[in-house]
Amino acid sequence: MGKSPTTKDDAQALFHSLRSAYSATPTNLKIIDLYVVFAVFTALIQVVYMAVVGSFPFNSFLSGVLSCVGTAVLAVCLRIQVNKENKEFKDLPPERAFADFVLCNLVLHLVIMNFLG
Amino acid sequence: MRHNSSQLGYKVQSASIEGRGVKLEIARSTVLKPIGDDSSSHFRLVSSPAIKFEMTRKLGFAFLLLAAASICEAAAIFSPISEAHRSAALELFSPAAGTFSSLEEATEALRTFEVLGIEIESDLKDSTCKSAVDALSSGSPNSKDLYYALRVSSVLQCKISDGALTGVALRLKDFVKDAKSLLDFYYSIGGLVLIKDQTSEVDVLLDDADGIFRSVKDLSQSDGKWRYSSNNPESSTYAAGIALETLSGVITLKSSDIDGNLIDALKRDVVKLFDNIDKYDDGAYYFDDRFVDASGHQGPVSATSSVARGLTTLASTSGSLNIPGDKILGLARFFLGIGVPGTGKDLYYQIDALASLDQSRVLVPLILSLQASVLSISSQDKLKVKVTTVLGSTGPPLSVKLMQVFSSGSKDASIINQELKFDPKEAVHVLDALPVGVDVGEYVFAFEIVLSDPEHKKIYVTGGRTKVPVYVTGVVKVENSKVEVLESDSVETQQKLDLPGKNDVALTANHLQKLRLSFQLTTPLQNPFKPHQALLKLRHESGVEHSFVVNSGKLFETTLDFLGLVENFFYLSGKYDMELTVGDPAMENSFLQPLGHIELDLPDAPEKYGPKPEIAHIFRLQEKRPPQELSYAFLGLVFVPFLAFLVGLLRLGVNMKNFPTSMIPAAFAILFHGGIAAVLGLYGLFWLKLDLFTTLKTLGVLGLFLMFVGHRTLSHLASASAKVKSA
After folding, report:
1. pTM score of the predicted model
2. How many CA atoms lie within 13 A of B185 on its CB side?
């Protein structure tokens, strides 16, 4: 193949390099990433549902979506704090970050449950 | 309704009136007149058969003012003394047990009978004379008894010897000397005057007339009233009248001249008294003593009567007084305006005063009265006017002119200036025909009396223009009367009516139609007439009645719209009797006639008080919900990412290696996870049934537990990983 590299080849090469780089991340971070993806997907399904049936009751929709989004955000915060390569949180023990994550989730879910109706 | 005019005819005992008339003539021919306008000292006896008529300029001007002022008077009818007074006198003064109870009462009764010309039966006359004579000879210490006894005997012409009278005169003279109060003077001097009238043999002249005059005059007050005695400050107009009579008696009895200045001062006092006179709107003048004074007299009748007597007595003894004529006429009108009084005393005062005014030398009032104040055009009644003295006797020759006619309520009048014809047989002035334009209704006719002899103006007072109310009635024609039933303004049934005669129509109508009644009223002079009442009455067979006013305009009509009246008629259908009432005081043929009946067909009454329709509550419609299958499908779909998460976790190779193995940390770890699960379960319960407060309370407890446990677990894990790191 002596052709000049096409866009398709470039995209494929980019994708491969990303994949290989990603596999180097530690497992716990991958767990957190998976959790975030799971939360976002759940939110998306709820939005699709709302698009289909209408926004009544709106508070329930909001609480559902915000719970997913909120927990995703908290998970992202956890990932930042737990990541060993992050120089900022070098001195923060990951257990402490996890405790914060749990606490914040509990508070978030209390609010969500109240708003669910 | 036909008005019956009351006949004001009266029979007069001609002898006594003529007798009085003769006396009048004699009295009038001897007149004392002052010379000069201002009060001067001497008098001159003018004894000529004809009165020398000296009209002073002052008097003439006063008359002109009177004529102008009299127009402002209200209209009223004053009628002279009549049979009603005579019968009242007989009733009020009929003595119980055949004799009068006191000489005072006898005086009043006898004087009244004398004026009215009533004869007394001889038994009563004898018994009264006897009691009078007894009183005179009894030697009673009371001058009052002697006075009344003398009065009785002078009226009844009782026979008393001159000797007895001389004795009485001497006693009275003693009383005069010792007199202290006004009444003492009055009785004693009055008695002496009466003796003088009865006989000329007895010497009654007073020695110190001037001194007596002064002592009585001292009791006068500046406002014209008199006091009863010098110690008592009470004063009244009644006392003033008595004082005037007393003083004129003193003048009569004088043996020597009285100081002229005193008499002039007295006349000025009289004029002052008349300045404070009260007046009614219809031209009656009177004096009013509003309190009971020393002699027990009270009220306008006695006060005015006493002044009238005193005034006329004074005028007869000392010449004419400068009293305006309308006030004299006003006094006469006051007494005539009383009508027939209810008590004997009031009747005496009225009759006595009128008799005094009739003989007065000031001015004799003449009264204009109508023989009938209600005239009927249809019967062609003629208006008859009488001008007489207050006692009812004929006046001097005069003519009566109708000057103006006012229709009631309006100020403008038509000027007529028509002279009435005098009918000498009946002594009435007749208006041959009513003035043009006088139709049925209420009018005020203004008459003017013109004395034929201009010199009589000094003797009589007529009051210038006199207004009297006159009612004119007549038969009112009812024309074009018909009753119709209308169907939307077009006539369906019509029946002509014959009013005011009997009618019996039969109509039917339903509630969509109207009933119309119309007629025209015309007066005898072909003018449209508006009666006081015009009513149409509908009466149901059950007795329920409805009245409607018939509206006036060019045509009298009323339209009953049954559609609007259905509720007023209480939804009663059936036979209604119709009745028409037209009435007015000026209408001689006012009628209340049944017209017939009308069958009314009205709709049924609606149920007013039944139950109202039920209102169902409409709940809020539920929002459109998606079908259940779709919701379940998405519910399942939501769990898909969770499953994918779990699968991903497995693929990543999660393990539980870091889970502590030794007992206590393991227990804490389990408790930690259990705590989180419990909190999540609590949230689930919160969503399902708990409220926020219990949730928060429980959460607080669980949170504390969880924090403690979590801290232990995580610190254990941290120390474990630190060990691993350092190792």
Report:
1. 0.57
2. 30
